[in-house]
Design goal:
This is DUF1996 domain-containing protein. The chain is of the alpha+beta class and 491 residues long. Helices cover 29% and strands 14% of the residues. The chain is built from nine helices and 18 strands. The strands form five sheets. It has a five-stranded antiparallel β-sheet with strand order 2-8-16-12-10. Helix 1 (2-22) runs antiparallel to helix 3 (37-107). The longest helix has 71 residues, at 37-107. The relative contact order is 0.13.
Length: 491
């Protein structure tokens, strides 16, 4: 019976171990999912659920072990009951022998001889009737405490309490009964160690963006103020139609800020217009290249890509720009007038930038990020907007438009072209030129699952949104654009 129970306990233990192992096997999720702030709290909840399941499995194993111990104890008690019955029978036999001896003493004179009392009775009845070893006899003064059932123990103790802390079982009282093996203490649930998924998630926590970098556009107050165009102003617009980068012209270069350097931007750019733009572009190479724009506009327009972070694309990127590149559904390149004055032609090959790719660490002095959603263009935010169903995300990038009248670039790429004041007036000593506004429209996940490419230390902060432009229009095309704007037309 013991051997059969031990075999059954071993099989139960092996089965529970296999059950516990089953719950540790899981499919490794996409790296991009871990980089999704919307998924991080869910991943945390899943890890907690896994730990809870492991705890339940361990408790189940503990209960099975305790049941096995209870069965062993019950067998021991059954054996003790049989031994006690045997002892009671022996005692009855001994009492009967004593009565027989008294009867013999009354009838046989030889029974009066003291020497005869030292002789063992026939058949060795004394040995069979000898009292049991006191050490193995139950104490009449100490009642045997019943062993609590696993159900009782679970009600009195925490579910994950070690079995070694349970009430100790009574040792077996049968001399031939082997002592029960020590109740094994519960194997502690292993503490969480940084594994594949947790390592990736910790890395994504370093990458950004964070939940606080997103906002429901409906929670943003209306904050767009329209500047009224004065009589002397210029209200026309000229739009250059250059496509949406359908030809996938992308690279991580920036010939304006980091000329002659490959991967000078440390993030991927979308390009429209000039087909040759890279880190080694020059005025001559740009002028000789083809273009995606209508009317022969060879200008180059570029901006950091936006990515869907719910996929495994680009996971090996050293700069942490992971996810699938989202191609804009619409790209508007509109040159606008000035509210208080006419505009003058901008020089060919002038370089202009807007925004600050390092605004998260530099501060907001040069930051120009404007995010919104279609249907909500009367409000903009510096956070990633979460757009309602039927609405698309907008990136609005306004360029400076007050030229110093001399330079096509400057040491910091900013001081040769400045922004007008709140009324639209240019600073003294500068001239109003057509102001470029890029409006990029995207279909994005409705959750916080997208981010703009950025320098690694910028943590994909939405305030780092920026764009670049180099004018390579012919002089004739530029004059046509200026004339259209100053006349108040839409071209």
């Amino acid at each position: 019976m013991k051997r059969a129970f031990v075999t059954m306990s071993a099989l139960a233990l092996a089965a529970s171990t296999l059950t516990a192992i089953t719950f540790t096997v899981s499919t490794v999720p996409a790296f991009g999912d871990h980089c999704d702030p919307a998924e991080q709290s869910q991943a945390q909840a899943q890890r907690q659920q896994t730990q809870d399941q492991q705890g339940q499995d361990q408790n189940q194993q503990n209960q099975q072990n305790q049941q096995g111990q209870d069965q062993q104890d019950q067998q021991g008690q059954d054996q003790q009951g049989q031994d006690q019955q045997g002892q009671d029978q022996n005692q009855q036999n001994q009492d009967q022998q004593g009565q027989d001896q008294q009867n013999q003493q009354g009838q046989d004179p030889a029974a009066q001889d003291p020497a005869a009392q030292d002789l063992p009775p026939a058949g060795g009845a004394v040995n069979q009737a000898s009292p049991a070893d006191p050490a193995e006899s139950p104490s009449p003064e100490t009642p045997e405490s019943p062993e609590p059932s696993p159900t009782q123990a679970s009600e009195d103790e925490p579910a994950n309490e070690s079995l070694s802390r349970r009430r100790p079982t009574q040792p077996s009282r049968t001399p031939t009964q082997a002592p029960p093996s020590a109740t094994p203490s519960a194997t502690p649930t292993p503490s969480a160690t940084p594994g594949h998924d947790e390592g990736e998630e910790a890395e994504c926590a370093d990458l950004g963006p964070f939940a606080e970098d997103f906002v429901d556009i409906r929670q943003v107050q209306r904050n767009v103020q329209t500047v009224r165009t004065q009589r002397a102003g210029s209200s026309g617009t000229f739009t250059s139609r250059c496509g949406r980068n359908e030809n996938r012209h992308n690279n991580p270069d920036n010939f304006i800020v980091a000329p002659g350097v490959s991967n000078g931007a440390h993030h991927l750019h979308d390009y429209v217009g000039n087909l040759s733009t890279d880190g080694f572009s020059t005025d001559q190479s740009l002028a000789a290249a083809g273009t995606t724009c209508a009317l022969g506009d060879r200008s180059t327009y570029f901006w950091p890509v936006l990515r869907d972070r719910t996929t495994d694309a680009n996971v090996d990127d050293a700069d942490g720009n992971v996810g699938t590149v989202l191609t804009a559904r619409q790209v508007s390149l509109q040159f606008r007038g000035n509210p208080v004055s006419k505009v003058t032609a901008m020089p060919r090959f002038i370089r202009i930038i807007t925004g600050d790719a390092k605004a998260a660490t530099n501060g907001g002095a040069n930051g120009r990020a404007q995010w919104s959603c279609t249907g909500f263009t009367n409000r903009v935010t510096t956070k990633y907007p979460l757009c309602p169903r039927g609405s698309q995300l907008l990136r609005i990038l306004d360029f400076p438009s007050c030229w110093d009248g001399q330079n096509t670039d400057s040491a910091n790429h900013r001081t040769h072209v400045l922004f007008p004041d709140a009324r639209g007036a240019c600073p003294s000593g500068t001239k109003a030129i057509p102001q470029l506004r890029m409006t990029l429209t995207y279909t994005t996940p409705r959750t916080a699952s997208f981010a703009v490419d950025a320098f690694p230390e910028q943590l994909h902060n939405p305030v780092t949104d920026h764009a670049d432009f180099a004018n390579v229009m012919s002089n004739q095309l530029m004059r046509s654009a200026v004339d259209c704007i100053n006349r108040g037309r839409r071209c």
